[in-house]
User: Fold this.
Amino acid sequence: MAYGKMTRGLMSAVAACTMAAVLGGPAQADAIKIGALKSSNVGPTFIAKEKGYFSAEGLDVEISYFESAQPIAVGVASGSLDFGTTSTSGGLFSLAGSGEVRIIAGLYSEAPGFHNFAVAASIKAYDAGLKTYKDLAGKKVATTQVGSPVHYSLALVAEKYGVDLKSIQLQPLQSIPNMVSAIVGNTVDATVINATSINPVVANGQAKLLGWVGDETPWQAAVVFATGKTIDQKPTLIQGFLRAFKKGTKDYHDAFTGPKEVRQDGPTADAVVAIISKYTGQTADQVKGGIAYIDADARLDVKDIVHQVEWFKSQKMLKDDVKPDLVVDTRYVVPFPPR
Assistant:
């Protein structure tokens, strides 16, 4: 009797699996790894995972955290990561120029009223007179790496205020925690750093905020990218990833952006903040203090990407044969209309 029940149960299970396969039912999920920083501006990735947008596309997502942007590009190129959702960098453009990775969507941008990258001074330097952007000339400024997104942000601010970038003593400290330690310990004069990391330091009186990069010089600060091999050989995977990711960008945008694309909390802001807090370990107030601008449809400012590539080439951080059209995969990127 028991044997008969077990046999019938096994046959039912086999039949169910067969029927699922025939009807296109649940199948083995594709396991993917996404490289990211533990920062508020990576919110769409966290939202898409938490709300099941990735799993609905048959994607089993693991988020791998890093302390700076460039190692994520290296990780994607090496195959240890499947996707990168982080800031642009000289390293990313170099790998893209050789065909190893390509940009498939936009992520966050520097924009007025949104707080992404901050420029902050150490207490010692501030007390000695470092109170404006023009005062950065001749100062020691911490970055993650040469060619990093904060390095590029520094260059844009310096150009706007007539500061010779060569006069600034760059201190590439390799990670955000090292930059925080340096600014708190007064071993550097200033830093350009993400809001999530610097806001608690400023609140504790251990550094002085000089301002926000987005208020001074907007630019496309972050993107989504994958290897050229994955993009070419697994279009279904790319399409499913982007569908899920763009649901995350829509949720993030609607939570924190009002009419005319200005910074304004919407009805879902608290719920989205709670998700980001869960993945970053930040308090709700810390998350709200580091909200970046993210386009609802993950569109990319292609014109600005071209400018970035040309700037890195002018600084001899990229080879002259790196072409912008090799960096962006036009099959998937949705560009902003000309402005």
About this structure: Residues 112 and 215 are 4 Å apart (CA to CA). The chain has two domains: 30-111+219-327, 117-216.
